[in-house]
Amino acid sequence: MSYGPQPNGNGNRYQGQQPYGQQPYGQQQPYGQQQPYGQPYNPQYAQASAYAPNPNAYGQATMDAASQATYERATHDSVTRTYAEMTIGLLITAAVAFLTQITGAYVAFLRATGMFGIILVAIVQIGLAIYLGARVMNMQASKARVWFYVFAALMGFTLSTIFMAYDLGTIGFALALTAGFFFALTMFGLTTKGNMLKAGPILLIGLIVLIVGQLLVMFLFPGNTGMMVITAIGIVLFAGLTIYDTQFMKMAFATYAAQGPEMIKRISVLCALNLYLDFVNMFLYILRLVGNRD
Question: Which residues lie within the region annotated Disordered (predicted)?
């Protein structure tokens, strides 16, 4: 075996290799570079090893992890704010309903206004809900919150009638059942990978059909059977709307997260209103289903 350069099989004896310890004339080994003993300089030794950590990649991964953690924390805070707003609205509704009942304010109002008063309150409630849902993104968050609390108080005023139709035990049982059902539905909406947002148009059509069907049963086909069917449909429909509004909340926070805390507060009020309506309507249907009239 000779110690000189060896053929490489294609007639080129050198093919980039030099005799032991020599470099091509005019090509100097880069300062500070170390090559294997007795081997020619290879530029690949000047590159970072594939097994060594890449500082840029490590820094990027750290930044991505930090950004993801910040985003998840902000989303958690926004969701918590939404449920806090909804809970305050429900407490206002319950307090106003109880005070209205013990003072007889609703009965006095009906005696003074009659059927016109009932229709007027219903129109104001619907109009306020539509106004708040349409304008919340363009008003100050504090103003939107006040309007939401006013709506919750007005809802409590009309819901005071349930104390005249059901006993406290039945109301408490229906409320606890609704709270548990609502919690399970919202947790499912927050954790499932299924996309319920695609069902939005179907749920909207179902809500319109439910309202029309309830009016028809009430005036044209009165009876327990028809109302029980409407009640069961209403529970299923608002269960679907609860999951939908929960996923809408997640989507809205992700979409508007970069627009600052003021926008997040507005989204919180809007989502709190949606979830509040889901809870109240589900409660009324469950109360009708399990209620024992006095």
Answer: 1-39
**C-alpha–C-alpha distance, residues 108 and 100, integer Å:** 10
- pLDDT grade for 70, boundaries at 50, 70 and 90: low
Determine how many CB atoms are found less than 10 A away from the CB of residue 292: 9
Question: Checking phi first, is residue 223 left (phi over 0); if not, alpha (psi -120 to 50) or beta?
Answer: left
Encoded tokens for 200: 């939005």
Checking if the pLDDT of 2 tops 70, the result is no
Q: Residues of 201-229 as b/e, b for ≥16 C-beta within 10 angstroms?
A: eebeebbeebeebbeebeeeeeeeebbee
Q: Is 2 exposed, middle or buried (CB count within 10 Å of its CB: 0-12, 13-18, 19+)? A: exposed
Domain count, the chain: 1
For the entire predicted model, the pTM comes to: 0.74
Q: 158 vs 106, 122, 125, 130, CA distance in Å?
A: 7, 9, 10, 18
Whether 119 is covered by a domain: the verdict is: yes
**Residue 284 counted as domain residue:** yes
CB 93, CB 156: distance < 8 Å: yes
Residue 15: other Cβ atoms inside 10 A = 12
Asked, for residue 8, whether it belongs to a domain, the answer is no
Please tell me the distance from the alpha carbon of residue 88 to that of residue 78, in angstroms, as a whole number.
15
Report the DSSP beta bridge partners of residue 293: 166
Q: Output the average pLDDT for the chain.
A: 79
Cβ atoms of 205 and 262 closer than 8 Å: no
Using pLDDT thresholds of 50, 70 and 90, give the confidence band for residue 64: low
Whether 15 maps to a domain, the answer reads: no
SS3 assignment, position 143? helix
129: domain range?
Answer: 80-290
Query: What distance in Å separates the CA atoms of residue 259 and residue 76, rounded to the nearest whole number?
Result: 17
- Residue 269 belongs to what H/E stretch? helix 261-290
